[in-house]
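Dear support,

I submitted the protein below through the web form. The confirmation email said the job was done, but the results page showed an empty box. After a refresh the structure appeared. I'm attaching both so you can tell me whether what I see now is the final result or a partial one.
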Amino acid sequence: MKPIRTYTVVPTLPPRLGRLRDLAYNLRWAWDHATIELFRRLDRELWEATGHNPVLLLGRVDQGRLDAAARDEGFLGQLDGVSRALDAYMAEPSTWFARQEGPTPSPLVAYFSAEFGVTDCLEVFAGGLGILAGDHLKSASDLGVPLVGVGLAYRQGYFHQSLDEGGWQRESYRDNDFHSLPMTLERTGAGEPIQVLIPFPGRTVGAQVWRAQVGRIPLYLLDTNVEENLAEDRDITGRLYGGDQDVRIRQEIVLGIGGCRMLAALGLDAAVCHMNEGHAAFLALERARRLMERYTLTFEEATEAVRAGVVFTTHTPVPAGHDRFPPALVERYLGEYAAGMALSSRDLLALGQTRPSPDEPFGMAVLALRMAAHRNAVSRLHGEVTRQMWQGFWPGVPVDDVPIGHVTNGVHFRSWISHEMDRLYDRHVGTRWREEPADRMVWEGAARLPAEELWRTHEQRRERLVAFARRRLRAQALRQGASYERLAAADEALDPRALTLGFARRFAVYKRATLLFRDPDRLARLLANPERPVQLLFAGKSHPRDEPGKELVQQVTRFVADPRFRGKLVFLEDYDLAAARSLVQGVDVWLNTPRPPQEASGTSGMKAMANGVLNLSVLDGWWAEAWEDTREIGGPGGWAIGDRAPLLETEEEPEERDRRDAEALYALLEREVVPTFYQRDETGLPCGWIERMKISLARLGGVFNTHRMVQEYTERFYVPSAVHVMSLLDDEAAQARSAAAWIARVRTAWPEVRVESVSPAPNPSLGANDLLHVRARVALGSLSPDEVEVQLYLGRLGASGELDTGGAVPMLSIGQASGGTHLFEANGVPCGASGLHGYTVRVLPRHVWLPSLFEPGLVVWATPDLPPQ
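What the results page shows now:
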């Protein structure tokens, strides 16, 4: 039975408690312990039962408790203090961004992501990508960066995991009641919900807009579950990563094209769009369409301005991990839309293909790479992997010059650090760590943390983790109708004093969740040592369609049931933010065992590090970077499993790599990790372990946080991109037209460009202090010398005779030569370190607005058989 009218019930708050509503609807509470404690104080059990949702808490709490709180002077004093803190935070005029750039009236950046993990109750995320996006918004808020988030409001979000008696993962979905969440429906001045209209074949899909306020940052979420839509379209925003390719492309059209139209409907004109992965890449088409309409531009002209204002962050180190759609599906959904921009189906498909052909799938990452001027991976090693992966996109460009950089991920410390560690840092590191965690000098204070206080704080968190795990295990057992004996075992699982290792992440094959179980007998001996006990906590979900991943979950749960591991190994089902926080705050060691180099970043280890937890990880993702940067001091207060793997596939079988890494892992645990933990002084303190905790915090705390990350994005990409876009669109987009005409002219002329000769030939043997003098004669066709950059490219030769580690030196134009060619010269170039070296010459197009000389993908190299000049 459908209602004829709907209405929303809101809590009846006594006037004195009115500010509770303001606090509940600003998600700053998600990283403010004082505000969380205020809501807990109303009803601790209800706070847990509502999934840490203050809006639902206020709607369900007993009216008598509210009335009592309104008369409680202690509660009112806490309420006033927390309210003043929120008001001061929101009104702060001197944020980091304001000090750097001055006030900005409109949003500078629109940050698009398919998922956002801001807090437990707002279930529009699946895992690390979404948590990273949520932490990005929080740090942007703290720093005052004028940014808005753009995503989708999933009615059922991601799945909830349960395990059957055989340990097989089952998925279930629950409806989100948006009206009971800390978000509001955006409305017009007349009070009607704002409607965004999105073009689909033969129809228009409508979407309403929900806003979640994340501190200073609004997060706007599109919701297609509106009555005017067809049933299939109402389900577009039903489940995160659910459905087949047809559903996925419709979701990504809503996110990209609908997201841009939503910003316009809200009156928000962001200069820069940041794509967190390629899911939102269709936004580039919509931005081009709008510019074509506004300035009467061609698609090519509009594209120059679009590229200048798009940042693309890729998190996926394997090509198969990116969304790719059949050409027919893309034509079906976007053919008519593209025709409105005078794009043929062939032109449209070519935007998402590396080598355009009728059969090649349309890649969202390819579209994003093609339409973004700034591209980055999420760790130093991931940058190397990504440049190799996409080198073919820029033919003739050496892998080191492929225009994909890296901005290493971080985590939002205040969202992940326990309340106890929070207070410990305040006392001994100083409160600046809260506002300026990216200042490395701040974290030097971690080296002075009192050993006993640090250890007791950590032990308290381990005890709380054990209590949390026991509650979860009991709930799992009750759901499965377990016996009294099993319930009793759940209540006694784990030892709050034992060395505790945590492994929690998505269960995908490459993450090797079962690496530690390759030799069960050896592991059992390690865990069962009565003098030095060890215990393991596992958690994680496998994608519903990832059968091999589900098998890994089942394998781990079978070991849980093995009598040798009973009580010392547990698997917590339905891994969520509450479990993640408990684990990263309470374990002693964070275990990470991916098959390198397939881990892009791995931010869970950073969250653990922020709590003083030590990392035991393969040298992949962020840990390769952290370990390499601090290995001169004996490592960053953790351990590296095995050696760093080569970036490219080798002849070594994965099985052999797994065998070697498992052996290295066992050896580390037996010889270093366990002995260090249990080596105590006369007061019972593990001094060596505590010293590693301090080293980890002091050396890594100032680097692997999202404040540093967002500052880097802002300084390297956001601000320069905004300036570039504004210059291209100034004077009715005159420079955009000029840029498009120039690049078209260069592409036409490029076949005429060649290096005619290079001289002189170097002496067979040169001293380390000698200088090279090289001259090149270059044919430029119709191009002028100031439209190109001629470079001397030199370096050490590898065994194959190729330049292994090349570097470029610009050559100066020194005049015209015969036949219309031009002379370029490099003088006084140092020979460098001893060894076999070589050089060549290359030519690249150059223009003041090109973000990289390699951007157009045009390069001409001198051929080895050139005649001497």
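Response: this is the final, complete result; the empty box was a page-load delay. The first strand starts at residue 109 and ends at 113.
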